Amino acid sequence: MTEAIRHDYEVSSEGAVRHWEIPYARLSDGSPTPSRPAQVTCLTAGLELTGTILSIDAGRSVAVIDFTCSMVYFQEVRNVLTYNVGVAELTWGPINVGDLIYYDDGASMVALALQLSTAPTDFAGVTNPLFGYAVAANDTDLALFPKGGIVASTQEVAVMQRGAGAG
Predict the structure, then answer these.
(1) What pTM did the predictor assign?
(2) What gap in Å lies between CA 110 and CA 87, rounded to an integer?
(3) Distances (CA, A) of 136 to 1, 97, 139
(4) Cα dihedral angle (57, 113, 138, 66), rounded to 10 degrees?
(5) pLDDT per residue over 71-127, tens digit each?
(6) Residue 20 φ then ψ, to 5°
(7) How many Cβ atoms are within 10 Å of 18's Cβ, its own excluded?
(8) Cα–Cα distance for residue pair 40/38, rounded to 1 Å
(9) How far apart are CA 167 and CA 155, in angstroms?
């Protein structure tokens, strides 16, 4: 899994850039890593704010997160569609352009050191927040879709994040 932000296709087509400092204590992953997805905890499952970690300040225990709507970052995405609740992943499917990508904080995702999947609910049956949408980074990437198949896999996908301010 790559841990560096790639600059060749990580641009916003329009709108204001939204970078905010968030204390580690407010993140679902208390050990944030730059270039990885992030989820700010909230009282309502499925409505959490999500974005991509740009940098961390371990001394102050804060992460700078990009919550810009429509920003595109390459992310590792698990192709799980459903779980046998509390047991394991149950079904998988290929990831295609336009597919919904969720921040999945389920047990199997944590064991795989991942946070994104195509499953609308997590390992415990709790609603996952929408992180963004699968998009093609360029013509070469477009030719690789659909990515994965009907067996478990993790795919590198350009994801247009939903971010803050999306309706």
Answers:
(1) 0.87
(2) 14
(3) 19, 6, 7
(4) -30
(5) 999 999 999 999 998 888 999 999 999 999 999 987 777 777 789 999 999 999 999
(6) -130, 150
(7) 16
(8) 7
(9) 27
